[in-house]
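CO-FOLDING WORKSHEET

Operator: S.A.
Ligand of interest: zinc ion
Run index: 81
Mode: holo prediction, single chain
Checklist:
[x] sequence pasted
[x] SMILES validated
[ ] output reviewed
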Amino acid sequence: MVGRYDPFGTCTQCGDRILWVKTKAGKNMPVNPELINYKAVPGGKERIVTPEGLVVAGEKCSVDEAEGCGYISHFATCARK
Ligand SMILES: [Zn+2]
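OUTPUT RECEIVED:
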């Protein structure tokens, strides 16, 4: 891994593997590494970050309803141990 950019990391709170995605705002955001299908919902409970770094309020959904793929913010699911 030396000399190579590694987007994966470990959450310091719960020890889970996370992925760092750079948002459009230029912030690095920890997300869960698995890509999920989502639909945008105003005021949706999940914060979904697309691979392009767009942060969307929405919900997980089935492939049929999906508007796109993204990652769920790790803050939402972090199980601090
Ligand atoms: Zn965590």
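REVIEW:
The CA atoms of residues 34 and 71 lie 7 Å apart.
The chain is about 5% helix and 40% strand.
[x] output reviewed
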